[in-house]
Design goal:
single chain; alpha+beta; seven-stranded mixed beta sheet; 7 helices; flat
Length: 643
């Protein structure tokens, strides 16, 4: 094949892979964009900064274990039939799968991501428009051989991204960036390059900054002491005044206070902007209820294997990682955004494009505090621990906290539990139960139930003194304001027997999965936040939809807005099921406020719930695939969203 033809084949194939590197924000675009190939591949070129680009460390050049990229992590997929080979391993960014051996967008079934391995027929069926031959995979579709290989010893197979682990709570290890300006490198930097791109690591500069901070602290303390001395002198002066003057002063102050109060009462109160990221990250306000939203952070440091240091441990010979506010002479107009002292007040002005403004052969981009990366490998180099991300970039681990997703999971319905169910939710760890004398309408406290514990209800409710209670199966009662109750809508009229579909109740923040008319699973969700301010309203749209496409993981990011939204970036959001434009059901590991409206329009689930729903709904994901599209022959499950 001529070089021009090969480029054309690769281009068509990559454009066919819609979400191999899909960049989305819930409710912000009508249709997902195509593959964004920028910053996907580390460039092995020489740096413009001092010092030559080093060779890759042993951890990234060692021989890979064939089992690491094999099917073990994929055994939890829908197709669990035993298989011994042969395999087709994808070595490019992604490989589209078509129903026929040709590049036809209308016949696209899904895609396999770099590192993915799928069952394949031994020989290609055709070489039309694909010099490597068209291979039939999973018995359902075809991939172009130019995008992978059946040789599992091929060097590109050994350097591929590891497959997502569907047996864990989260498919990858995720880490939250804790500092402004954290670099994402294209290749591992030398010590000289680290000091160039991370000036806060320079011991001399750190000493200067420390001395400056101490001087500023002393100056503030001196100013405070001076103010206190002035206050004491004023108090003595006031005490020496004539009593009649003192009474007059008090009267004047009282009149002034009353006038000020009246003025304040006439002045409309502006709605306070609250910083927030995608689907509730760092959102300070939540849906108003009897309970406060969960303020428990899930971003607690998790010890790294073989590393006894904390997340802010000393990176070898380069000195300690800086604390907040240490990143340079903040506030200077010619300083980069990430070194400015007041950047937190202007973060909504920072765009994703600006994060790559100083990119070169070594540096790909910088990150904002709160961005997440998905970790492919962890290794040591130059006295420092590093993460290699699933996007192929490298970043210092001492700037991150590893984060674990919530282990909350909904309830399978059957002999033990049935509808209606309820869960206590909100910021409290427990909620009270009551004994009620229905004749005398007398309410007495009884016990306490744990948050997120499933409660079997009888369906009986009673209202006493304006408060509605629901009866539990054991005879105790619970206040409705303390729980979320499953209240699914009517099933679709044209429902087929055993058809799988999803019911989402926005008012109760619950989800129920059905097979035909039989409910089989129920849980809590977090849908879009609502607001009377248009720019802040992220309401989840109501209606009946069908799942259009499913991705084991896909990246979501976006710019901030003047309405208070901040720029955000979360690599490889797990278990994404798009059903309307960029609205989706997906896992949210960055909060655990299920039962409270938190998102930018998508329907958040706990990681375990999202995985359950992902594997339950249609279209089914074939073994080893990373994404699948619904077709006329394999329609997606219905998603009904209502109040």
């Amino acid at each position: 094949m001529h070089r021009r033809q090969l480029r054309r084949v690769l281009s068509v194939s990559l454009s066919a892979v819609l979400a191999g590197a899909c960049l989305l924000a819930c409710g912000t675009r009508e249709e997902p964009p195509g593959v964004d190939e920028r910053a996907e591949k580390p460039k092995q070129t020489h740096s413009k900064a001092s010092g030559a680009a080093p060779s890759l460390p042993e951890e990234l050049t060692q021989t890979a274990n064939a089992a690491d990229a094999g099917a073990e992590a994929e055994d939890a997929a829908v197709d669990a039939a035993p298989y011994t080979g042969p395999w087709f391993a994808v070595t490019k960014i992604a490989a589209a799968v078509f129903s026929e051996p040709k590049f036809d967008q209308k016949q696209k079934l899904g895609y396999i991501r770099n590192g993915g391995r799928v069952p394949v027929d031994p020989k290609p069926v055709s070489t039309t428009n694909c010099s490597g031959g068209w291979y039939k995979v999973n018995g359902v579709g075809y991939v172009c051989g130019n995008l992978g290989t059946t040789d599992l010893e091929h060097p590109e197979v050994k350097f591929a991204i590891k497959a997502p682990d569907l047996s864990e709570v989260l498919p990858y290890v995720y880490a939250r960036n804790a500092k402004m300006g954290t670099p994402l490198y294209r290749s591992v930097p030398s010590k000289e390059q680290m000091l160039t791109y991370e000036p806060y690591l320079d011991p001399k500069k750190k000493a200067e900054e420390k001395a400056k901070a101490e001087a500023e602290k002393k100056a503030k303390e001196a100013a405070k002491a001076k103010e206190q001395e002035k206050a004491k002198e004023k108090a003595k002066s006031d005490a020496a005044k004539d009593p009649s003057d003192d009474k007059a002063d008090k009267a004047d102050k009282s009149d002034s206070k009353d006038a000020g109060s009246a003025k304040s009462a006439d002045k409309p109160v502006a709605e306070k902007d609250t910083p927030k990221l995608i689907d509730g990250i760092r959102e300070k306000s939540a849906e108003k209820s009897d309970d406060k939203p969960d303020e428990t952070k899930s971003d607690k440091p998790i010890p790294k294997p073989g590393d006894t240091r904390s997340a802010s441990a000393t990176p070898g010979e380069l000195g300690d990682a800086p604390e907040a506010g240490e990143e340079g002479d903040a506030g200077a107009p010619d300083q980069p955004w990430w070194q400015q002292d007041n950047i937190k007040d202007k973060l909504h002005e920072v765009t994703l494009e600006q994060l790559s403004a100083d990119a070169d052969d070594i540096l790909a981009k910088r990150m904002v505090t709160g961005f997440y990366v998905a970790v492919d490998k962890t290794f040591r180099w130059n006295g420092r621990t590093w993460y290699k991300t699933t996007k192929g970039l490298v970043t210092p681990a001492d700037r991150f906290w590893q984060t674990a997703g919530s282990k909350f999971q909904g309830t399978e319905l059957g002999s033990k539990f049935k509808l209606p169910l309820a869960w206590a939710y909100g910021g409290r760890k427990t909620a009270p139960t009551y004994e009620i004398d229905t004749d005398k309408r007398r309410v007495s406290p009884k016990e306490r139930i744990k948050r997120f514990e499933p409660l079997q209800l009888t369906g009986k409710e009673i209202e006493i003194r304006g408060i509605t209670y629901s009866e539990m199966a054991d005879g105790q009662w619970v206040k409705n304001i303390h729980v979320r109750i499953t209240r699914p809508g009517a099933p679709p009229e044209d429902l087929k027997p055993d058809e799988r579909w999803i019911d989402v109740n926005l008012k109760e923040q619950t989800l129920v999965a059905y097979k035909g008319s039989t409910p089989v699973y129920a849980t809590l969700v977090s849908s879009g936040k609502t607001s009377s301010v248009k720019k802040k309203d992220h309401s989840t749209p109501e209606g009946e939809f069908r799942i259009r496409e499913k991705h084991v993981t896909t990246t979501m990011d976006g710019d901030g807005t003047a309405a208070g939204d901040l720029p955000y970036s979360i690599e490889d959001v797990p278990y994404v099921m798009y059903y309307k434009g960029s609205y989706a059901l997906h896992a949210a590991f960055w909060h655990s406020n299920y039962g409270i409206k938190m998102s930018h329009g998508c329907v958040n689930l706990s990681p375990l719930d999202a995985k359950w729903v992902f594997l339950f709904t249609d279209p089914q994901l074939p073994k080893g695939w990373h994404g699948v599209w619904a077709t006329d022959g394999r329609p997606g499950s219905r998603v009904r969203v209502h109040e």
